[in-house]
């Protein structure tokens, strides 16, 4: 069993509202060998009586969980990030099944995260932009919406099963992906330069940059490739100062 691989997977709950759900998530994580639980701006007491009641023997997962204010804080140090969604996105995006995508999080030596949204709406597009791949749990089309804890249970089970058969899983053991912080720094740099040279305009920059994010996320960039791209941006930024201004 790849216990170390499971230990490197973070379960990230974005703004969970129900302590019963949070406790149930902790229990199923313990069942499936997962230990890292991070809550982004929770609207409930993760250590209260209701959460503890549902966690049963997973109380230690609750007690060791972390609370952060932003998604970037929750994802620091991660090279691979998958988000769950039950709806169509505004941008063309390939939705995968948990069984097909989640083994990707178990690559040797990499830190990864699996994100879940709020109980009432899931993850919005602004939150989904941080992920590289997206999963949707197949269900009865007449009523496909799963409870938060149920969704975590399905995905945790698939991760556990993938860890039992590493040879059958897509792990890319020798691939070193760029960290979340490295990619976010690149995206900020890209936005600054593209605004400066007039390729982006402030009122459309957000939508355009989401397309760039999805493009680069598909590429699974390495740290060396990010450094190469940032070198190009620095050169473009330097050359831009010699372009005559249209206002002159």
Characterization of the model:
The chain contains 11 helices and 7 strands. It has a 7-stranded parallel beta sheet. It has helices spanning 3-7, 19-31, 49-55, 59-64, 71-75, 98-101, 125-128, 148-164, 180-196, 205-219, 223-240, and strands spanning 9-14, 36-40, 66-68, 80-84, 95-96, 112-116, 133-135. The chain has 248 residues and is an alpha/beta fold. It has 2 domains: 3-162, 3-Layer(aba) Sandwich (Alpha/beta knot); 178-239, Helicase, Ruva Protein, domain 3 (Orthogonal Bundle), CATH 1.10.8. The model has no long low-confidence stretch (mean pLDDT 89).
Oligomer: single chain
Which CATH-level-2 architecture of the largest domain?
A: 3-Layer(aba) Sandwich
* Unreliably modeled segments: none
What's the SSE pattern?
HEHEHHEHEEHEHEHHHH
Topology-level CATH name of the largest domain: Alpha/beta knot
As for the number of domains, it is 2
Number of helices: 11
Q: Percentage of helical residues?
A: 40-55%
CATH superfamily of the largest domain: SPOUT methyltransferase, trefoil knot domain
Strand order of the largest sheet: 3-2-1-6-4-7-5
How many strands in all? 7
Structural class: alpha/beta
Write a concise keyword list for the protein shown above.
248 residues; alpha/beta; Alpha/beta knot; Helicase, Ruva Protein, domain 3; 7-stranded parallel sheet; elongated; methyltransferase; transferase; tRNA (cytidine/uridine-2'-O-)-methyltransferase TrmJ; tRNA_m1G_MTases_N
What does this entry show, briefly?
This protein has helices spanning 3-7, 19-31, 49-55, 59-64, 71-75, 98-101, 125-128, 148-164, 180-196, 205-219, 223-240, and strands at residues 9-14, 36-40, 66-68, 80-84, 95-96, 112-116, 133-135.
């Amino acid at each position: 069993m790849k216990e170390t691989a499971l230990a490197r997977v973070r379960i990230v709950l974005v703004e969970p509202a129900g302590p019963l759900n949070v406790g149930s998530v902790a229990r199923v994580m313990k069942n499936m060998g997962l230990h890292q639980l991070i809550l982004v701006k929770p609207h409930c007491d993760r250590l209260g009586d209701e959460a503890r009641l549902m966690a049963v023997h997973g109380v230690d997962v609750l007690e060791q969980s972390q609370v952060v204010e932003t998604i970037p804080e929750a994802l620091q140090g991660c090279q691979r990030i998958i988000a769950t969604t039950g709806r169509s996105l505004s941008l063309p995006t390939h939705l995968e099944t948990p069984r097909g995508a989640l083994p990707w999080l178990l690559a040797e030596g990499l830190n990864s995260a699996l994100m879940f949204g709020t109980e009432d709406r899931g993850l919005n597009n602004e939150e989904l932009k941080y992920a590289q791949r997206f999963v949707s749990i197949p269900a009865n089309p007449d009523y496909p919406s799963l409870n938060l804890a149920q969704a975590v249970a399905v995905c945790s089970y698939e991760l556990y099963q993938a860890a039992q058969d590493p040879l059958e899983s897509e792990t890319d053991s020798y691939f070193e992906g760029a960290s979340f912080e490295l990619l976010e720094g690149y995206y900020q740099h890209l936005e600054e330069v593209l605004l400066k040279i007039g390729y982006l305009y402030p009122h459309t920059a957000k939508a355009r940059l989401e397309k760039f994010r999805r493009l680069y996320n598909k590429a699974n960039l390495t740290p060396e490739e990010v450094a190469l791209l940032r070198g190009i941006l620095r050169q473009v930024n330097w050359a831009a100062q010699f372009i005559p201004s249209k206002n002159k």
